[in-house]
Amino acid sequence: MLLKSVTESFAKMIHGFKVAHLTDRVIQRSKRMILDTLGVGLLGTSTEVFYKASQYSKIYTSNISSTVWGQMDFRLPPTYAAFVNGVAIHSMDFDDTWHPATHPSGAVLPVLTALSEALPRSPEFSGLDLLLAFNVGIEVQGRLMHFSKEANDIPKRFHPPSVVGTLGSAAAASKFLGLSLNKCQEALAIAVSHAGAPMANAATQTKPLHIGNAARHGIEAAFLAMLGLQGNKQILDMEAGFGAFYANYSPKVLPSLASHTWLLDQQDVAFKRFPAHLATHWMADAAASVRRHIVTDGAPLPINHIQRIVLRIPDVQYVNRPFPDSEHEARHSFQYVACTMLLDGGITVPSFHKCQINRPQVRQLLRKVELEHPPDNLPSFNTLYCEMSVTLKDGATFTERSNTFYGHWRKPLSQEDLQEKFRANASGMLPCDKVEGLIRIVEKLEDIEDCSVLTTLLKNPVPPQEASDYPACNNSIPESVLKLIEV
Question: 3-class SS at 307?
């Protein structure tokens, strides 16, 4: 049958995909994405931005509810459980990154864990059901980004997870809920009206809301489509529709299911070794190599002997922060990551704590940094490089360049290292037996009969932190306001 529109072809793909369409490589890669996303999400529940988002979400109640990861007896309506878990995933910028540029998993996985637990079904949603819906959500994001050359580069206008992530979330929810072809098409149209957030909020506490909102709005779009809400059935075909988010938008009807090839089969994701913008990982590698020339036998970095530090990087303005003043700015600073690696010889989660950012040694190094933007260093995660040159006061100069870091799709993390990252992230929120149980469940996810076992393991038997643990967060919503907005 000849499809009439791009939007219809997406709906047909979402509705038509079966478990049998999944390939072994797609299953293995998506299980790695799921494990990593669970880990960074659990770690993210320790952050101030998660605390604020979860406190806000407590004003919403419902007869059905889903687990908030890493918490004890804290449940929310599925849309808001997906929201706060999505916020947690991106709260440290530690989640996976794809090409064209987006964070694909964070908008999708919270949707599926929330729905698998909240909605009764006989038989239960299986691990393969979850894997299929997850990959449908990932595939929709990738296909949409391939319609624009602008999407190949590190973004300048809209944060991609807020755009394609919202549609990926809607697609995953639609698949998981078993929506008809027509309602899948409506869900996409509704999701487009929920999509979009500006890059101006990068390096702030608001940026993690982009992924939380994408997850929440995707579920809402699917629920509203189920109730018969209608939108523009040509939404993905139009420049005034989804094309509003990307320049040079040139959509194409998708191939038939019989000839379909998964994008994840062709393009793997990158997994981060420390919680910061992906581009800074090249810089950390280059800085570590330069440090080996300057520091020997465990001696401290001779800061006073350094005359000049030159970073040759792509021109990405929102990652150019000479003197970051918060953890979120530091995560989006070529300069801070370069100087921290040079000084400490490693970067970890605590590297972005306020006390580390404001160290006098770091500030002293930051004042020595200069930037250069070579014309061949384009702002694409597939081609960029980072180079550091350090000149000492005796005239000696040491230069190192990183073309690919460990964790990039060209040099993927080993399964052992990915699991160690998960253990490190999850162990602060869950007991050891649950951490190891999650690793085993995800490893055998395609064999699991009831995927809600994931959320059982994601519950923390230890009470969550109190508000007093967040001195800046002791603002409460007045009781009078709560009564007005409870649902």
Answer: strand
CA dist., res. 260 & res. 253, Å (int) = 12
Say if strands 306-312 and 75-76 run parallel, antiparallel, or are unpaired: unpaired
411 by DSSP, 3-state: which?
A: coil
Q: What does DSSP say about strands 369-372 and 306-312: parallel, antiparallel, or unpaired? A: parallel
For residues 291 and 362, what is the distance between their CA atoms, to the nearest angstrom?
A: 15
- Residue 66: beta bridge partners? 76
Cβ atoms of 406 and 6 within 8 Å: the answer is no
Contact 237, 7 (CB under 8 A): yes
Nearest Cα to Cα of residue 137 among 17, 43, 245? 17
Q: Nearest CA to 324 among 336, 311, 316?
A: 336
Question: 254: which DSSP letter?
Answer: P
Alpha-carbon distance of 24 to 22, in angstroms, equals 7
Which residues does residue 97 pair with via DSSP β-bridges, in sequence order? 270
Q: Which helix (H) or strand (E) holds 436?
A: helix 432-443
Phi/psi of residue 407, nearest 5 degrees: 120, -20
- pLDDT on residue 189: 98
What confidence category does residue 275 fall into, taking pLDDT thresholds of 50, 70 and 90? very high
Q: Which residues of 311-339 are buried (b: 16+ CB within 10 A; e: fewer)?
A: bbbbebebbbbeebeebbbbbbbbbbbbb
Q: What is the mean pLDDT of residues 208-228?
A: 98
CA separation (Å) from 24 to 109, 130, 256, 434, 439? Answer: 19, 15, 20, 27, 19
pTM, whole model, 2 decimals? Answer: 0.93
CA dihedral for 192, 193, 197, 198, sign (positive or negative): positive
147-193, pLDDT tens digit by residue? 998 888 888 899 999 999 999 999 999 999 999 999 999 999 999 99
Q: What is the pLDDT of residues 403-462, one digit of tens each?
A: 999 999 999 999 999 999 999 999 999 999 999 999 999 999 999 999 988 988 998 776
According to DSSP, residue 158 is labeled B
- Amino acid letter for position 396: A
**Higher confidence at residue 2 or residue 342?**
342
